[in-house]
Amino acid sequence: MGADNQSQGLCVPAASETGRKRVLVLGGGFAGVYAALHLERQLGRRDDVEVTIVSRDNFFLFTPMLHEVAASDLNASAIVISLRKLLPHLSFVEGDLTGLDLRAKTATVAHGGLDGHSHTLAYDYAVLAMGSETNFFGKPGPRDHALTMKTLGDAMLLRNCLIDRLEEADADCMTVGGKNHVVTFVVVGGGFAGVETAGAINDFVHGALPFYPNIQHANVRVMLVHGGKEVLPELGEDLGAYTRKKLIEHGVEVRTGIHVQDVTAAGVVLPDGTLVPTKTVVWAAGVTPPSLLESLPCEKERGRLKVNERMEVPGFPGVWALGDCAAVPDLTNGGRPCPPTAQHALRQGVAVARNVCSALKGRPGKAFRYKMLGQLAAIGRRAGVARILGLKFSGTFAWVLWRTIYLSKLPRLETKVRVAMNWTLDLIFRKDVVQLIGPRELDQLTLPAFPLSSRQQVRHLQALQPQPRH
């Protein structure tokens, strides 16, 4: 085994020779980062404990604002912050989690791309906060022919695709009837991600049309397809109906009660066989737990790790699971699993960190209790919907409330200032239509479809750039 490991570039660190307890946080999303933030405050300067966070990206992404990057309301750098800057007293490893042995208490992390190598990290305590993946429901069509909205790379790719479609449709060689499918944009999924993405696409495309004289507003078609009775089911039918009404007023075509049959290179196939011709489909129809969880010898609930009220994984002492990858019982709601929201994940992260600190002292942890304060969504054209502490809000006030609350939730003052400045500029100036990825690179990246992850897409783009001669 040693020879094989050497040939594969596998690095296996020796067990801690200093006697320090090793805490491993797996995941750089809300759950993992907020657990790490609390652990840094409590343990970051201690010599007897080593805390390491593992993430596929070296930054924390504020995902609720992803659609604003796609709509050019925010620069991509405004909603990310370096994990090394955010957690200066913790160890950090960038890479993809490729293996986890709960019995041996080791995690395997790969980085460096195709010519990279792996590290096996040993731990005494582990916090599993591995998030979720886009759920394609076993359909190869959406996986191969649709964009997603989970990562910063997804938002940047969508923005560049929107501009590329406008450039193509504005060309003189396009006929009026032939250009409509180019500027037809379909979003599948009527939850928060789908609604906010559809509103953002609609705002961006119509806001950019003054720069494209050969495209009329009537040529543009933005469609939102949702399988449920009403969009935003989390907020109730009344706010969902209001959202649908406002989206339609803004020019978005909303179709509810429809489950997309397939997505092909030609467009979206509806259940009755109707084809909606389009070159741009965004799949936001839900998430699923990471495939790595399937190999773990743990009890699961709908694919998520089943944990107790202290978020401990039964049968594996010193292991906690939280966030989207775990079915955390909601003690304020009859013990049903907590919804996979950012506000639950960050509070679960703090609670788990406290339980880790208690375990280091040999004390039992505390049960997680949190009653959701409310939910908000931005639906475009400076309008929003919200349900907070049982009260319902809609319109411009809800949009201002959305921006105020999420601005306050951003970590670090510098991030808040960047976002506030971007928002101020967006109120004054028109949409920015600079295409950061050129059409040649975009074609190479997206053909035959979208087979690469966002991280692979970025690396692929770098490989496409001409290399300087020395």
From TrEMBL:
<dbReference type="InterPro" id="IPR023753">
    <property type="entry name" value="FAD/NAD-binding_dom"/>
</dbReference>
<dbReference type="Pfam" id="PF22366">
    <property type="entry name" value="NDH2_C"/>
</dbReference>
<feature type="domain" description="External alternative NADH-ubiquinone oxidoreductase-like C-terminal">
    <location>
        <begin position="373"/>
        <end position="431"/>
    </location>
</feature>
<comment type="similarity">
    <text>Belongs to the NADH dehydrogenase family.</text>
</comment>
<keyword id="KW-0274">FAD</keyword>
<feature type="domain" description="FAD/NAD(P)-binding">
    <location>
        <begin position="22"/>
        <end position="349"/>
    </location>
</feature>
<keyword id="KW-0809">Transit peptide</keyword>
<keyword id="KW-0285">Flavoprotein</keyword>
<dbReference type="InterPro" id="IPR054585">
    <property type="entry name" value="NDH2-like_C"/>
</dbReference>
<protein>
    <recommendedName>
        <fullName>NADH:ubiquinone reductase (non-electrogenic)</fullName>
        <ecNumber>1.6.5.9</ecNumber>
    </recommendedName>
</protein>
<dbReference type="InterPro" id="IPR036188">
    <property type="entry name" value="FAD/NAD-bd_sf"/>
</dbReference>
<dbReference type="GO" id="GO:0050136">
    <property type="term" value="F:NADH dehydrogenase (quinone) (non-electrogenic) activity"/>
</dbReference>
<dbReference type="InterPro" id="IPR045024">
    <property type="entry name" value="NDH-2"/>
</dbReference>
<dbReference type="Pfam" id="PF07992">
    <property type="entry name" value="Pyr_redox_2"/>
</dbReference>
<keyword id="KW-0520">NAD</keyword>
<keyword id="KW-0560">Oxidoreductase</keyword>
